[in-house]
Amino acid sequence: MTYALLIIPFAIVTLIVTLATVRRPAFGRRMGSSAIAALVLVVLTAVFDNIMIAVGLFTYPPEHLSGIRIGLAPLEDFSYPVCAAFFVPAVFVLSSRGRRA
User: What's the pTM value of the predicted model, to 2 decimals?
Assistant: First the structure.
């Protein structure tokens, strides 16, 4: 299995959970904040994954990658922080039903 295929269920769950919060208050503001958080996480991932790969802490089998890289880090590495930036706030909003967030 390739890493790109492994990402699909995480992305689908993130999309479903995030869309479940569309009618909740401040959805647009939350999406803006999530986008900023995703950008920060992508930058941090780019910096630290490149460092860790460069010093040999881990490698990826090339046959499981798309071949697209940002420095030494495969593109697939960036999907999890992006999903987290949208998924975590959405879960928080859904779990705070009836309470003021």
Answer: 0.85
